[in-house]
Amino acid sequence: MTRKICITSVDGHTGFAIAELILQRREFSRKVDAVVGLTLDPDAERVQVLKGLGVTIVPHLPGRVRDMVKTLKDTGCDTICLVPPAHKNKHDISVELVEAAKKAGVLNVCLISSVGCDYAEKKKQPRLREFIELETLVLQAKGDTSTPTGTSPCVIRAGFYAENLLLYAPQAKEEGMLPLPIGEEHKFAPVALGDVANVAAHVLTGKGKHGFDDKHRGQMMIVTGPMLCAGNELAAAASKALKTEMGFENISESEARRVLKAQSESDQSEQQYILEYYSLVREGKTNYISTTAFHDVTGEHPTEPEEFFGLYKEELRPAKKAKRDHK
Hints:
Blueprint: E1 4-7, H1 13-24, H2 26-29, E2 34-39, H3 45-53, E3 56-59, H4 65-75, E4 79-82, H5 90-104, E5 108-114, H6 126-140, E6 152-158, H7 169-175, E7 177-180, H8 193-205, E8 220-223, H9 231-242, E9 247-250, H10 253-263, H11 268-282, H12 292-298, H13 305-311, H14 313-316
Parallel strand pairs: 1-2, 1-4, 2-3, 4-5, 5-6, 6-8, 7-9
Helix pairs in contact: 1-3, 1-8, 4-5, 5-6, 8-12, 9-13, 10-11
């Protein structure tokens, strides 16, 4: 059985990481005939990297389901990894992709959703709650015998990316602090982006008689990091990895918004998503870990916080203060 995979939003962190991992790790690449990358920004640096790895790049022009159906049919893909884009119209673009995949007869559909969407409230965390509707649209196809997409759906609820903590690298380097608006008591379990990509790559390349491997088909996979952390525990893990003292500062949401606006390259909708997730932490709705899917799918152990901080020590380690000159 051949496998030709279309991955959306390859100009973003998640889509890029999944595509790159599939092509660079032999256990995945040997199961795949081709990878197609759908992108809203064909000139993006990540897109050029994927081109060099052999990904066929297709410009994504949202607006009409009929046109998207033709685009998907033209790719010849039997599998789609639907990564909602970092875009102000993320919801509408993603809904269009789900509908187009159904009408194009794509057999296997894997949606990258978000941990916490089931706890989010529409008025308080609208960007998070949007993922519930996308999950519903993907899974509804399971009961629709008129479309092949009902045969082999999978949803991966990705945890809050630990990489989002790197947005505070300037404060870590200059002040030795992690400033987060998460309160003093409640916890969350950040997950490394590479771990999410690892699970997705296993799902997308796994094969069974109905499409995806029967171990993955129809699954709702919740993927968090392996350790629940309050702010001071994150700082302790960072201190160990960086071999220097790091502190935690509980900042206000308005201050966090200012920091994100100044230091993040992501668009306003993604910044809002990050702030909404932090609000879930403050409400005590993220006090759990879920690593069973990761263990079952990959056979490996997810990245521990100390290990994560170690990977990015150059970006985070505080610079030594210059000694004062004495005359």
